[in-house]
Write a structure and sequence with these properties.
The structure holds 2 protein chains of 2 kinds. Chain A is mainly β. Helix content of chain A is about 0%, strand content about 55%. In chain A, strands 2, 4, 5, 6, 9, 10 and 11 form a 7-stranded mixed beta sheet that branches. A 4-stranded antiparallel beta sheet of chain A has the order 1-3-8-7, with no helix packed on it. Chain A starts with a strand and ends with a strand. By secondary structure, chain B is mainly beta. Chain B is about 5% helix and about 50% strand. In chain B, strands 2, 4, 5, 9, 10 and 11 form a 6-stranded mixed beta sheet that branches. A 5-stranded antiparallel beta sheet of chain B has the order 1-3-8-7-6, with no helix packed on it. The chains are: A mainly beta, B mainly beta.
């Protein structure tokens, strides 16, 4: 009964490959987010979706493409992986972000290592 | 200047002692403030929201100083289990304009020792 789940937990891949990370929440939330935590531990927002609609799209290379098939899922696809993409990627969800500064619940993270 | 700045620490705290630390934010229009806690190799979790009047949750007290644009966290009677990184989080501007976007500080590491 995990609230926000991500798969895989660890991902080791070579430069140039394409990979996807999946996120699912069973909290009935309307808004989902992707964050990146780099080696210096800074957490930065990448994207957010509200009811399948893209709300936030930070300055992220267009090799990163989020997809929300329904409001319980937000997947992240990364093309042509680069060494600098190595980081921990966290998915999060909250109640409707347009209606309030609601608490965000984070998934356990996906540790991506690009070699 | 970073949007949210914190002293990275670590703050080495004897068990039972009190520790306090601040963070500063740059966007004076910010209205929503939080402290999240992140354990090593784990996800961040909300510790508490920070209200204008200040608020307390058990051993934890948060304060907001709008004039000087900083928020603080005080931990009383520190427990070993309080060892973690404390993340100062701000929604820049209004939550609606910002899309509920959380802006994180780099975190303050606290180590509570016996």
């Amino acid at each position: 009964d995990t609230a926000v789940s991500q798969t895989p937990k660890y991902l080791v891949t070579q430069m140039g490959n394409d990979k996807s990370i999946k996120c699912e929440q069973n909290l009935g939330h309307d808004t989902m987010y992707w964050y990146k935590q780099d080696s210096k531990k800074f957490l930065k927002i990448m994207f957010s979706y509200n009811n399948k609609e893209l709300i936030i799209n930070e300055t992220v290379p267009n090799r990163f493409s989020p997809k929300s098939p329904d409001k319980a899922h937000l997947n992240l696809h990364i093309n042509s992986l680069e060494l600098g993409d190595s980081a921990v990627y966290f998915c999060a969800s909250s109640q409707d972000g347009n209606r309030g500064p609601y608490e965000q619940y984070f998934g356990p993270g996906t540790r991506l290592t690009v070699t | 200047r970073k949007e949210v700045e914190q002293d990275p620490g670590p703050f080495n705290v004897p068990e039972g002692a009190t520790v306090a630390f601040n963070c500063t934010y740059s966007n004076s229009a910010s209205q929503s403030f939080f402290w999240y806690r992140q354990d090593c190799r784990k996800e961040p979790k909300l510790l508490m929201s920070v209200y204008s009047s200040g608020n307390e949750d058990g051993r934890f007290t948060a304060q907001l100083n709008r004039a000087s644009q900083y928020i603080s966290l005080l931990i009383r009677d520190s427990k070993l289990s309080d060892s973690a990184t404390y993340l100062c989080v701000v929604i820049p501007g209004s939550y609606k304009a910002a899309g509920n976007k959380l802006t994180f500080g780099g975190g303050t590491r606290v180590l509570v020792k016996p």
